[in-house]
Amino acid sequence: MTKIVNSWNDFDPLKHVIVGRAEHSVIPPEEPATSEKVPIDSEMRGMWGPRPLETVEKAAAQLDFLAKTLEEHGVKVDRPTPLQWNQHIQTPDFRNDSMMTCMPPRDILLTIGNEIMASANSFRCRYFEYLAYWPLMKQYFDEDPEFKWTQAPRPRLTDKSYKHNYYDEQISLEERLERTANKDFVTTEVEPMWDAADVLRLGKDLFIQHGLTTNRTAMEWFKRYYPDLRVHAVNFPGDPYPIHIDATFVPLRPGLIINNPQRRLPEEQRKIFEANDWQIVDAAQPAHDTPPPLCYSSVWLSMNCLVLDHKTVICEASEVHQMEQMDKLGMNVIPVPFRDAYPFGGALHCATADVYREGGCEDYFPNQVEDPTLV
């Protein structure tokens, strides 16, 4: 019996992975979700259309090099099938002038055990992005009799799914941070909405970031769908634009996690880790003061690394401070140039989705404490 799909965390030995593609990528037009997630001072605000060909070619080359590096380290690599993202999409509830990309599989696919689930994204432009991965899902389905191929409930994404005029150009950074601390986000609770990149898998525990892309209704859905797992709703008040967890909270091996020093996990939530002898270390400072051109993300993509096993990690080649820290933490570092790919959807972990890691569903938090985050 061939077992294709198995993964319970992001640090056990990686044997099979999907690496995204940049071809045909588009900067999507503003919509209720995206307009509230792009910082007011960002050069990306109001911009949309096909990404410049030169940038696509550079990103594609770096994605290809990542795939080659993984293969050289014994990892089987699959790639999605890009769609023509520069075409309008329509449902009974909305019309959008384009889609986006399939560079970051991490946003779309969530692997838990022998199941790969397509997410319920809040971006309208990402509504059909899952289709780029469907040929691979069918292949795994044909080859692995235990593989569960799942699609989370599709949100309708009507205007009721969003708080309109949530931000305006007059709002200060302090007011944004206050809203984050108060768990006041642009998405409403009329239906479950979530990005896979908001979900941190640690065996029997799922730590899900409540922010601009994932709502509380989604967490309640996770609790009911996975009754044998513990679902925690985590929040990082220092982030004015809380989108995805992988540049904020990154496990390297059992018992060790790095945390963005500007977006620290609140003290009452740290107790979950401390009670089980986990060390939470402030991540090293980014090597760059600004993100690359045409990039939505922050400079903290520096900590968005890809862990191959408990002692090996791939880091972006120019992130010298992060690589130095990884070395001090006992990790063997593989540098891979990836900064040209950042604008297409994130860094090294964003650009991948697990298919197979060795290991099973471990309980890393057997010492239960009073947990205000538990859903």
Automatic annotation (TrEMBL):
Question: What GO molecular-function term can you cite, just one?
Answer: glycine amidinotransferase activity
Q: Which domain of life is it from?
A: Bacteria
Q: Name the keywords, alphabetized.
A: Transferase
NAD recorded as keyword: no
- The answer to keyword Glycoprotein applying to this record is no
Gene3D superfamilies assigned = L-arginine/glycine Amidinotransferase, Chain A (3.75.10.10)
Q: Which family does it belong to?
A: Belongs to the amidinotransferase family.
Q: What is this protein called?
A: Glycine amidinotransferase
Q: Which organism is it from?
A: Actinomyces ruminicola
